[in-house]
């Protein structure tokens, strides 16, 4: 009571009554968003072209004047008519519209193509960053696996009944949107549930609260150790959730989750596209993590990682060798999304916070979309470079011929219009999905 809650905070472990004391436009997060919009609205290539235009026009005017004046003076015949004509040819062909129009148009076409595939890119500069990715980190549950966690086994201990274990587990699970919680509630069905007081969900660990004064815990092996709950068996080769009440260990539940059928093929294809390192980073145990990683061909595996530890690991790899991409699907991935160069989130009902922090949001949990994003972004950047080379290269050629006297003014004007149409056509009619 009395603490300040700042704009941008998200409640993930309970309920609060908050009094609004400031308008959104006056908050720090509003200023941050304004700064992001002003600085990242254009990709580096487009910003470079815009900046170049500031100097390009004065330089071209200066060169045209020099071509018109300097040669007659140096030759000594002072016949300016021919050289002024050549200067006008250089001025006519140097209009930068072929590049200035086609470059942003190409990015818009790329954004549109990605959107049509169900891939929403929040900022155009991301299109430039995706092809530079050399390292990709993947979350496991729900990203590389189907995320449909089905009950495999319920194992009560210490003379606890299965009904009592499920009573505590489902009572806590009803306060969480995690996939495991949903699976527990589905399995428990109409089983009576209790109201839980002081509920606290700890991302990456589990959920806790109080039932009739007893502290109840639903979580992974790490949470059991943190809370000092003794249990005989630490199962690491499967997804396991432990249950405790009043300091007493009640038992555990095992869940089954399968790898996505397209995962191996997508990873192999991305490796062919130039991705050098694939990392699996997960909060699961060692055996379970390596079981998935070995099937899919990952280079390194990092297990038993909390959301904070994931973010620290990803940040260490930034600026080492190309851009770092992170692919995830849950609230646990929010922090690491912010720390990575490119964050990609699947658009699922329980990851609204991850969607906010991600650079790219994919409409469906399909790993093929990651490959499509890479291909379309690379094609977009390739066409941008093509248009710059075609536009400037042709202009330099015509301008050079004009200076030598092998070009006419009317033909230079026609050539300028023609090359603009060529670069625009190259942007509009090319297939970006190839």
Query: Radius of gyration, Cα only, in angstroms?
Result: 30 Å
**Approximately how much beta-strand content do the residues carry?**
15-25%
Annotation field: number of helices: 15
Helix and strand sequence: HHHHEHEEHHEEEHEEHEHEHEHEHEHH
Précis, in short:
The chain is of the alpha/beta class and 434 residues long.
Question: Describe it for me?
Answer:
The chain has 434 residues and is an alpha/beta fold. Helices cover 49% and strands 17% of the residues. The strands form two sheets. A seven-stranded mixed β-sheet has the order 1-13-12-11-2-9-10, with helices on both faces. A hairpin with a 2-residue loop joins strand 7 (239-245) and strand 8 (248-256). Helix 2 runs antiparallel to helix 3 (80-93), helix 6 (162-173) crosses helix 7 (179-188) and helix 9 packs parallel to helix 14 (368-404). The mean pLDDT is 85.
Write a concise keyword list for the protein shown above:
17% strand, alpha/beta, six-stranded antiparallel sheet, 15 helices, 434 residues, single chain
SSE blueprint:
Layout: H1 28-39, H2 44-75, H3 80-93, H4 97-116, E1 119-121, H5 125-129, E2 133-138, E3 150-156, H6 162-173, H7 179-188, E4 197-202, E5 206-211, E6 214-219, H8 221-226, E7 239-245, E8 248-256, H9 263-272, E9 277-281, H10 286-296, E10 300-302, H11 307-317, E11 323-328, H12 334-339, E12 342-346, H13 352-357, E13 360-362, H14 368-404, H15 409-428
Parallel strand pairs: 2-9, 2-11, 9-10, 11-12, 12-13
Antiparallel strand pairs: 1-13, 3-8, 4-5, 5-6, 6-7, 7-8
Helix pairs in contact: 2-3, 2-4, 3-14, 3-15, 4-14, 4-15, 6-7, 9-14, 14-15
